[in-house]
Amino acid sequence: MSTPDVDVNHNKNIKTEDILCPLVEYEECDFSKLLEKPRLLNIDRQRSLDERSLSELSIGMSPRHSTKGVDLNSSRFFEQLESICSPVGRRSGFSTPRSQTGFDPHPMVAEAWEALRRSLVYFRGQPVGTIAALDNTEENLNYDQVFVRDFVPSALAFLMNGEPEIVKNFILKTLRLQSWEKKIDRFQLGEGVMPASFKVLHDPVRNSETLIADFGESAIGRVAPVDSGFWWIILLRAYTKSTGDTSLAELPECQKGMRLILSLCLSEGFDTFPTLLCADGCCMIDRRMGVYGYPIEIQALFFMALRCALLLLKQDDEGKEFIERIVKRLHALSYHMRSYFWLDLKQLNDIYRYKTEEYSHTAVNKFNVMPDSLPEWVFDFMPLRGGYFIGNVSPARMDFRWFCLGNCIAILSSLATPEQSTAIMDLIESRWEELVGEMPLKVCYPAMETHEWRIITGCDPKNTRWSYHNGGSWPVLLWLLTAACVKTGRPQIARRAIEIAEARLLKDHWPEYYDGKLGRYIGKQSRKAQTWSVAGYLVAKMMLEDPSHLGMIAIEEDKQMKPVLRRSNSWTL
Ligand code: GLC
C-alpha cells in the first residue's frame, strides 16, 4: 500500500468539492453525423464497438448464437466467441444457490458475492465503487478507499451478473474527479490524470457527503497512477460491450475524458520508442521495484486502452485526429513490443551471443544489451516450448523478470500474436510450480534478494524476497489468467488454478497476497477481506462457466498489424 502515513482527509492540495449537480445529461447523440456508416448504429448499436479495424475503422456485425457447441480447445475458439458475445441483461446466476445454467456453483461463490456486496461504497445513496479491503484488524491506511485498478474485477463481476449501474456510476464519478485541479506542491499535474483512488467523506454534523481523491499527491513516492486512465478506458469499453448501451461512451464528457487521457500518452517529446516512459511504482506494483522505464504492465495496458479508445471515439473533428494518432501509435507499439520485448529460447540464445557496441541502423543488438547482464535464472526458467514478454527494455537494460499482469493483458488485447499467446500459455504450463505453485498467481518471477533487493527496492521491508510485489502470489490475478486461458482455448489451465485457490481463499478470509516461493503463506502484511481477491475469483468462475463473457475484456487480433515482425534473420515465430 502506498500511503501508510498520510491522512488524505487532511491533504490541502485536493479540492474536497461537493458534487451537487447531476454529472451528465443523458441526451441521445446524433450518431449519423459522426460516422460515415450510420446504418451500423441504427441497426445494432452495441456491436459498433467491436470490430473497428485499425486501418478501415469499419464496423461489422455478426449474428447471435448460443454458447452451446463452442469448442474451447479449438484455435478458432475466439473467432467463434466474438460472434456469440451478446449484450448482457442476463445474469450468470451465481448470486443464487443454484446456477441457472445447471452448474452446481461452488459453495464459495455465494460467500464471495456476499463479501463483494459488503464492500460496496455509496455516495448519496448510489453505489459508486468497492472498498479495497474490509479488514478492521489492520490499520486502514488507504485500504478504505475505492481504487480504480481494484474496482476493475468488481466491475466485471457486476457486468457479468447483469448489474451495470454501479459500473456506470463509477465511470461517471471518476470522470468528475479527473477534472479536479491536481497539484503536488507547486507543480500541476496533467489534466487527463485519473485518480489512483477516492473516498466518500461523511459529515455527520452537516449530514452531507463529499468525495476526496488521490492522484498520487498522497502516495508514497508521489507517483501518479499511469494505469488508472487506461483501466478507465478499458472499463468504459467493457461496459459498452456488455450492455450494448453506447450512450455512456457517446457523452461529450466521456469523449473528452478519453481524449484527455490520450493526450497525456500520445504527446510528442524526446522519445525514440513508441513505448511509454514511466516512473517506478505507477501501476499495480505501486512501490519501488525496478519497474521504471518501460514496464510491461503499462505498455500492455497502454496498447489495450488505445485499442479500446479506437472503438469508442467518435469520428468527429476532435475524435478523428486522435484516431489517426492512435492508429499510427498502435502500429509502432506492436512492432516494438513484439520485436524487442519478446523472449523465447531462440531469442535468449541470440542475446546470449550478442555482439555489443554496434553502431548504425544495421545493428542487431540495437539497445546495446551486454550478454553478461543475462541473469542465471533465466536460462533454467526458459522452457523449450514457450516464451513471454519480458519486464522492461531500455538502453543497455533488459529486465528479464516475468510479470503476470502485462503478459495476460498482452494476450487479451492481442498485443501478443496468436503464436505468442500460445507460447505464453505454454510457459505458464511448464513453469507451473514457479508461477502458480500453491496459490495462483505470482505477480512477478523471480524475487530479488540480498544486494539486488537492497539496490532495486531501496531496502523496502514490505518487498522482501517472495513477498508482496517481490514475487508474492496475488489471488486477484486469477481472473486475468482465466481470461487469457479462455481466449487461447486452454480453459483446463484456469480450472486447475481455480481449484488450487478454492482450497484456501475463503478459509484464509480472502487475503490480498501470499508469500513464499510456492505462495504457501498468507502475506506478511496482507490484508484480509481484500475485495479484488474476492472479485477476481468470481470473475474467473463466471468466465469459465460462460466463456462469452470474455468479449467484454478481450479484443481480437487486428489482421492489419500483421505480418509478425522479426528482429534478426534468426528469429522466427
Ligand atoms: C496495494 C497494491 C495496489 C492496490 C492497493 C489497494 O498497494 O500494490 O496495486 O491497488 O494495494 O488494494
TrEMBL record:
> Pfam families from the entry?
Glyco_hydro_100
Query: Is Hydrolase one of the keywords?
Result: yes
Sorted keywords for this record are: Carbohydrate metabolism, Glycosidase, Hydrolase
Per the record, the domain of life is: Eukaryota
EC numbers for this chain? 3.2.1.26
> What is a single molecular function from GO for this protein?
sucrose alpha-glucosidase activity
> What is this enzyme's class at the first EC digit?
hydrolase
Q: What family is this? A: Belongs to the glycosyl hydrolase 100 family.
User: What functional role does this protein have?
Assistant: Invertase that cleaves sucrose into glucose and fructose.
Protein name, please?
Answer: Alkaline/neutral invertase
